[in-house]
Amino acid sequence: MSLTIRTLISSASVVIGLALAPWAVQAQDHHIVMPPDQVKFGPAPPALPAGAKIAVLQGDPSAAGPVVLRLAFPANFVVPPHWHSNAERLTIISGTLYVGAGDTVDRQGSAALAAGGYAYLPPKMHHYAWTKAAAVVQINLDGPFDIFYINPNDDPRKSPGTR
């Protein structure tokens, strides 16, 4: 078999492999353009309290690599104290998100971040978030995404009937 035919077969195999792997479209070397009306929210995974909605803009939250997602929180929503294995970079898209550090929710000790606000939360930092009114936050992280609640009773995955 000539080198040209081998090259064509090899190239075709790569293209077919990429076509069969949906996450490959969001690789770092592929651009993504998503107008606001194409951001589609759905129910957040069971690791978050009921009522949150999620839109994954880039990456696979369950896999290693860059991930960009948006979370929409309703009014009076609380994400109880928790931590993650990887850093989170939060940008507030709309509304106000209150963020605090520690093992209990301290509403007086929380920082109010309005649209355009930013927070960096290092790996394993104990933190929480809450809203008074609806808010949308964009989270940039290196996957995989995980969440560990400080108080195991706060974990919605362990509380049947909370979703």
Order of helices and strands: HEEEEEEEEEEE
The spatial strand order of the largest sheet comes to 1-2-3-10-5-8
What does the overall shape look like?
globular
Major sheet description: 6 strands, antiparallel
The total of helices stands at 1
What is the number of strand segments? 11
Measured on Cα atoms, how large is the radius of gyration? 19 Å
Q: Segments where pLDDT lies below 50 for 5+ residues?
A: 1-27
Q: Please identify the structural class as seen in this structure.
A: mainly beta
The portion of residues forming beta strands comes to 35-45%
Task: Summarize, please.
This protein is mostly beta strands. Helices cover 11% and strands 36% of the residues.
Description of the molecule:
The protein has about 160 residues and is mainly β. The chain has one helix spanning about 5-20, and strands spanning about 40-45, 55-60, 65-75, 80-85, 90-95, 95-100, 110-115, 120, 125-130, 135-145, 150. It has a 6-stranded antiparallel sheet with strand order 1-2-3-10-5-8, with no helix packed on it. A 5-stranded antiparallel sheet has the order 7-6-9-4-11, with no helix packed on it. It starts with a helix and ends in a 14-residue tail after the last strand. The model is unreliable at about 1-25 (pLDDT under 50).
Set down the secondary structure blueprint.
Layout: H1 3-20, E1 42-43, E2 53-58, E3 65-73, E4 78-83, E5 88-94, E6 96-101, E7 111-114, E8 118-121, E9 127-130, E10 135-143, E11 148-149
Antiparallel strand pairs: 1-2, 2-3, 3-10, 4-9, 4-11, 5-8, 5-10, 6-7, 6-9
